[in-house]
């Protein structure tokens, strides 16, 4: 046994060293450089569907459309990360909120009224938040895996109710959902890489910003904007009293309660906020798709959402983002596999779980905890190569504390 | 310090990329891919790309594969007859999921080489993508989407060569009154197809219906439905749903003691029904607004696809043929091919094909296919 | 709401629910045991069950049983099929433990990650079954395996006769020999499993690990072996359930495990996860509730009834009907 630990421990940091390295460097750059980097990154994201870079764009399916799907998954993952990652509540029925968001929009804009999409959005978000509270109020008293199965049940109840209720369109679903208001300003050309060199293709343009059924790119821009807004809000909340209360609740509910944290109320808040973000994603999905039916809201989708969060590293918003990209983008990128796709996805899930159990981009806390455990183990087994590392680790922790102080100030 | 160097390096890279983009040339208005009909200019006067849209993997893959195999057979025969024509069929796998269909259809619409579409296969994905095809003026011929409402959206590009669910229901009623059934129990599977067809059958049968029940796609235990059927004392059952559930349902009905007639629709007209149900399927009758594949077609299909024709194989064949004939006729861009399909008037394998303004096929004959000793026999028209 | 209808057909609905509940209960045992020992949801257990259903059909094909097989021959072939099914499912469960769990446990991965690994394994297993035709043709074995890999995405029916004789009547409902076989076999299996856990040395080991893995390993319990045995027992029971399921339902396909797995897990939670008798009770309660619920509200609301019941029970008994424990209460 001890043989495997000592052999395994030094190898551990090298796994996924790239992601960790990027993060470590980013953390130590000055704030203005960070800001510049982030802005450049965001700009690149906005330009992606126009650039259609040869390796990352998707052969056989529309790149802009796939990017939109990815952006929606990112939103969902960030929202679910609040519930699963921050508050530690295992939610297997998140698709229910996504569905409620989409259906509220569908009902208000097409099925029973003709509201514009923009007007239906706040109502949809209100309804999803309310449904989050309504689900959470009775069920959050149940702990751990019981909550998982109860939420799973909730997701299924939502889906089956949609199928069986004529008022909600039943199985045929709701069609003719309107697009957001357009503001056509300029036409932007796409790049064409078919000759090997990038050529600006003026026959293939996207109008900024005109939402039409034939061009998914403006929808992608809208989704990306919402992703950025949600990420910013997420950062504010995570670093606030609320975020710390979630963390305390997740780590030890009883202790948190004893320390005066109203755990139930914070769990409910996590549920409501998670539902809120899920509702945004659902509303976007509905307006882009112009058509929704219950088949788009199956349990399998819930499982994919959860996979995104856990794969990315639960508790880290960037982890959730990366996880969502993996889950939504890879199957579309590798359409060539055709029938083998699901099998390959399953294998990928297993391999990632086994070789990167902390997630692709775990939160700093998790890394520190793991390093401390490894250091402890190495001290026990008295491996001299590792003792040296403790010092650097300590330096790191100190710096973290300093940063947190800055944040507060 | 090294950290910020990296940042600078990244930023530098981005700037360089930006400059490169600004410096690179343009394809101009109609070079490269070109637009519309000009695309085919190089390949003589008989070339084009068709697209198939529908499931090829996932739980509903079988129906899609039947259609694709039918289309491929049509293409093979076409290529033999017209060796000069360069026509290909590109396949776009939606897994039957409207959400996956959307980006695929954006891609199809954005590819000017594609001038006609076989599909979409299911009503859900048709509803989701219909507006896009209509906007792009790209003609679609669906072999299998049967929701009646699809034709009411005003999409000029929408066509289907199968009768919608409303056409099948009256024929079911005719058949059942023809054999003098006194009491019928109707079961549907709550799917778009099943619920629509089931409601139609209930309406067409009127007083003959002694009870209804709904199951869910994916369910495997139909005990409550069996109880309800037995309690109603019905002489006949009509199941509106797909073969996967139909096989289990008839099997459980028989072992539950029901010995009346079991009827179902085109969704059940598949060898998979008999494979799942075994001997319990014997004596069933399946209705379908589709003509049986004649021996010649069946032989050719089997040779091409390596398996017997299944549900929608003949429709897939016909759908491809309509578009292929249009290409031979010189309709090499979207607008003229759409025009061609709108004015199409000829015999197919399944029926005489001609579309009305909404895209519905004009002539619909519903056939009844009996199942005997583990095989679905050739259907007879219901009159 | 069809109260009169439910009253009139109460026995029929009740027995139907009881029979299917027995299948739920057997599968639920696998979930509950693994949960009891490892505190993780073995999401791929549904595929362990699914492999059993295929093994049942293939075993019957192998010995050439068909609709003409009757009487003693039929009973013997079904018994053979059940043994094959149990061995297959047991094997798949062991494989699952080796490939999807042990590497994670060794690395001390968080519990949720084990769930993801299980979800991945579940996809892999069901897709492998659904792609068996493509896999066989890739390996050039298509002609050798013939119908065993043909139409691999489609339903596969039980080849034997599926008409069952009515043994006796209760209030107008004819109880068939199948109903009796399923319920009796399921209860027998569960009693065996329960006694195994309670009385044998290995069973004591399982209980010990369930209570406190660290202490028990200090006391000399080989926890790896205990975990293996837990998976094996769960697999064997799922295999038995698979044969009974085939008798009841009549056909299977590559994704048949998914919904049944969700329901069986619900049953395990309903009864109190980690509790063997709870799984039994949960399975029966869920089966009967679904059947009566379908009668009362219509078949389309069946699963909704099941999940609403689950929520209600958990509200009043947050740890399930019988509370959580594997043999004894867990701290």
Q: What labels describe this entry?
A:
heterotrimer; A: 409 residues; ABC transporter involved in vitamin B12 uptake, BtuC; two-stranded antiparallel sheet; 2 strands; globular; disordered N terminus; disordered C terminus; C: 331 residues; mainly alpha; two-stranded antiparallel ribbon
Provide a quick synopsis of the model:
Chain A is mostly helical and 409 residues long. Chain A has helices at residues 2-11, 17-28, 31-51, 63-86, 95-111, 117-139, 144-164, 217-238, 241-251, 253-258, 263-289, 299-312, 317-333, 341-355, 364-381, 384-408; strands at 186-192, 199-208.
Task: Give a written overview of the molecule.
The complex is a heterotrimer of chains A (409), B (383) and C (331). With 409 residues, chain A is mainly alpha-helical. Chain A folds into two domains: 2-11 and 364-408, no CATH class; 62-183 and 218-355, ABC transporter involved in vitamin B12 uptake, BtuC (Orthogonal Bundle), CATH 1.10.3470. Chain A is 69% helix and 4% strand. Chain A has 16 helices and two strands. In chain A, strands 1-2 form a two-stranded antiparallel ribbon. The N and C termini of chain A lie far apart (47 Å). The relative contact order of chain A is 0.15. With 383 residues, chain B is an alpha/beta fold. Chain B has two domains: 3-164 and 292-354, Rossmann fold; 165-288, 3-Layer(aba) Sandwich (Rossmann fold). Chain B is built from twelve helices and 15 strands. Chain B has helices at 2-23, 61-81, 98-110, 123-136, 165-178, 192-205, 223-232, 243-255, 271-277, 295-305, 313-328, 334-342, and strands spanning 47-54, 86-93, 114-118, 139-142, 158-160, 184-188, 209-214, 236-240, 261-264, 285-288, 345-347, 352-354, 367-372, 375-376, 380-381. In chain B, α3 (98-110) packs parallel to α4 (123-136). The model of chain B is unreliable at 1-43 (pLDDT under 50). Chain C has a single domain (3-147, 164-328), classed as ABC transporter involved in vitamin B12 uptake, BtuC, CATH 1.10.3470. Chain C contains 14 helices and six strands. Chain C has helices spanning 3-8, 10-38, 45-62, 71-107, 111-130, 132-139, 142-145, 177-199, 201-211, 213-218, 223-249, 256-271, 276-297, 302-316, and strands at 156-157, 166-170, 173-176, 251-252, 325-326, 328-329. In chain C, the strands form three sheets. In chain C, strands 1-4 form a two-stranded antiparallel ribbon. In chain C, strands 2-3 form a two-stranded antiparallel ribbon. In chain C, strands 5-6 form a two-stranded antiparallel sheet. The N and C termini of chain C lie far apart (44 Å). The chains are: A mainly alpha (409), B alpha/beta (383), C mainly alpha (331). At the A-B interface, α3, α4, α7, β1 and β2 of A face α1, α3, α4 and α6 of B.
């Amino acid at each position: 046994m001890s043989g495997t630990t000592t052999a395994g421990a030094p190898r551990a940091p090298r796994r996924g060293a790239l992601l960790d390295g990027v993060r470590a460097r980013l953390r130590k750059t000055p704030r203005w450089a960070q800001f510049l980097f982030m802005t450049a990154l965001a700009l690149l994201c906005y330009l992606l569907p126009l650039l259609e870079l040869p390796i990352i764009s998707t052969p056989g399916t529309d790149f802009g459309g796939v990017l939109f799907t990815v952006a929606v998954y990112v939103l969902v993952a960030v929202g679910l990360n609040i519930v699963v990652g921050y508050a530690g509540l295992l939610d297997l029925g998140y698709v229910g909120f996504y569905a409620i968001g989409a259906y509220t929009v569908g009902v208000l804009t097409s099925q029973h009224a003709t509201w514009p999409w923009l007007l239906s959005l706040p109502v949809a978000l209100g309804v999803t938040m309310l449904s989050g509270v309504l689900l959470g109020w009775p069920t959050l008293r149940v702990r751990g895996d019981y909550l998982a199965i109860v939420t799973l049940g909730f997701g299924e109840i939502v889906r089956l109710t949609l199928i069986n209720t004529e008022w909600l369109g039943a199985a045929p679903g709701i069609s003719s959902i309107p697009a957001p208001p357009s503001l056509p300003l300029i036409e932007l050309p796409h790049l064409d890489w078919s000759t090997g060199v990038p050529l600006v293709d003026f026959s293939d343009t996207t109008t900024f910003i005109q939402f039409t059924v034939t061009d998914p790119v403006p929808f992608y821009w809208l989704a990306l904007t919402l992703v950025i807004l949600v990420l910013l809000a997420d950062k504010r909340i995570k670093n606030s009293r609320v975020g710390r209360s979630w963390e305390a609740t997740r780590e030890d509910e009883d202790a948190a309660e004893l320390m005066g944290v109203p755990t139930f109320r914070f769990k409910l808040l996590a549920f409501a906020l998670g539902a809120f973000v899920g509702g945004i994603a659902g509303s976007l999905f509905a307006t882009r798709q112009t058509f929704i039916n219950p088949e788009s809201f199956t349990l399998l989708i819930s499982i994919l959402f959860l996979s995104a969060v856990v794969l990315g590293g639960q508790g880290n918003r960037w982890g959730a983002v990366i996880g969502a990209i993996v889950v939504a983008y890879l199957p579309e990128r590798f359409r060539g596999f055709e029938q083998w796709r699901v099998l390959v996805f399953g294998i990928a899930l297993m391999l990632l779980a086994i070789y990167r159990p902390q997630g692709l981009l775990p939160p700093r806390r998790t890394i520190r905890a793991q390093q401390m455990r490894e250091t402890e183990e190495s001290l026990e087994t008295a491996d001299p190569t590792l003792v040296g590392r403790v010092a650097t680790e300590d330096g790191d922790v100190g710096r973290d504390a300093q940063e947190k102080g800055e944040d507060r100030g | 310090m090294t950290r910020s160097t990296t940042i600078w390096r990244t930023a530098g890279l981005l700037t360089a990329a930006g400059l490169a983009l600004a410096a690179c040339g343009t394809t101009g208005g109609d070079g490269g891919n070109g637009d519309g009909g000009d695309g085919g200019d190089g390949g003589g006067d008989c070339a084009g790309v068709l697209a198939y849209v529908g499931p090829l993997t996932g739980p509903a893959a079988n129906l899609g594969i039947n259609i694709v195999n039918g289309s491929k057979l049509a293409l093979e025969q076409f290529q033999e007859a017209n060796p000069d024509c360069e026509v290909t069929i590109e396949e776009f796998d939606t897994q039957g999921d409207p959400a996956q269909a959307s980006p695929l259809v954006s891609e199809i619409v954005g590819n000017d080489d594609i001038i006609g579409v076989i599909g979409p296969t299911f009503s859900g994905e048709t509803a989701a993508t219909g507006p896009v095809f209509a906007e792009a003026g790209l003609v679609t011929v669906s072999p299998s989407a049967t929701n009646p409402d699809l034709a009411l959206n005003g999409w000029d590009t929408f066509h289907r060569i199968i009768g919608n669910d409303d056409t099948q229901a009256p024929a079911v009623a005719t058949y059942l009154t023809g054999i003098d059934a006194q009491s019928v129990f109707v079961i549907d599977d709550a799917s778009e197809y099943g619920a629509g067809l089931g409601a139609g059958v209930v309406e067409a049968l009127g007083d003959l219906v002694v009870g209804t029940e709904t199951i869910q796609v994916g369910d495997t235990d139909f005990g409550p439905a069996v109880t309800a059927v037995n309690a109603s004392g019905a002489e006949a059952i009509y199941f509106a749903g797909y073969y996967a559930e139909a096989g289990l349902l008839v099997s459980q009905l028989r072992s539950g003691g029901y010995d009346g007639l079991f009827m179902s629709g085109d969704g059940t007209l598949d060898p998979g029904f008999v494979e799942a149900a075994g001997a319990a399927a014997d004596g069933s009758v399946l209705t379908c607004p589709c003509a049986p594949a004649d021996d010649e077609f069946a032989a050719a299909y089997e040779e091409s696809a390596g398996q017997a024709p299944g549900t929608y194989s003949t429709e897939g064949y016909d759908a491809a043929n309509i578009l292929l004939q249009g290409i031979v006729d010189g309709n090499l861009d979207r607008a003229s091919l759409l025009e061609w399909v709108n004015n199409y008037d000829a015999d197919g394998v399944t029926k005489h094909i001609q579309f009305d303004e909404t895209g519905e096929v004009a002539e619909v004959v519903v056939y009844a296919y009996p199942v005997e000793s583990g095989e679905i026999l050739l259907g007879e028209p219901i009159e | 709401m069809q109260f009169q209808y439910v009253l009139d057909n109460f026995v029929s609905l009740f027995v139907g629910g009881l029979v299917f509940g027995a299948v739920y209960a057997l599968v639920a045992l696998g979930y509950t045991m693994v949960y009891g020992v490892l505190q993780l949801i073995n999401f791929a257990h549904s595929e362990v069950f699914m492999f059993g259903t295929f093994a049942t059909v293939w075993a019957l094909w192998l010995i050439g049983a068909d609709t003409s097989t009757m009487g003693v021959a039929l009973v013997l072939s079904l018994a053979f099929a059940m043994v094959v099914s149990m061995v297959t499912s047991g094997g798949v469960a062991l494989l699952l433990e080796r490939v999807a769990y042990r590497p994670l446990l060794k690395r001390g991965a968080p519990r949720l990650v084990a769930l993801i690994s299980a979800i991945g394994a579940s996809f892999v297993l069901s897709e492998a079954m659904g792609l068996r035709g493509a896999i066989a043709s890739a390996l050039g074995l298509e002609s050798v395996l013939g119908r065993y890999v043909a139409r691999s995405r489609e339903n596969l029916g039980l080849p034997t006769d599926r008409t069952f004789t009515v043994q006796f009547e209760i209030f107008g409902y004819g109880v068939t020999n199948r109903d009796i076989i399923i319920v009796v076999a399921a209860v027998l299996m569960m009693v065996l499993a329960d006694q195994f856990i309670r009385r044998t040395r290995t069973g004591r080991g399982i209980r010990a690990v369930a209570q406190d893995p660290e202490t028990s390993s200090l006391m000399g319990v080989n926890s790896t072996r205990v975990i293996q045995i837990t998976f094996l027992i769960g697999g064997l029971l799922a295999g038995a359930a698979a044969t009974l399921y085939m008798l009841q339902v009549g056909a299977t396909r590559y994704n048949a495990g998914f919904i049944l797995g969700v329901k069986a897990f619900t049953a395990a939670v309903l009864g109190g996860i980690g509790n063997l008798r709870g799984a039994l009770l949960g399975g029966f309660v869920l089966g009967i509730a679904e059947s009566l619920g379908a009668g009362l509200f219509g078949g389309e609301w069946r699963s909704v009834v099941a999940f609403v019941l689950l929520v209600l029970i958990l509200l009043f008994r947050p740890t399930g009907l019988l509370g959580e424990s594997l043999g004894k209460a867990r701290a």
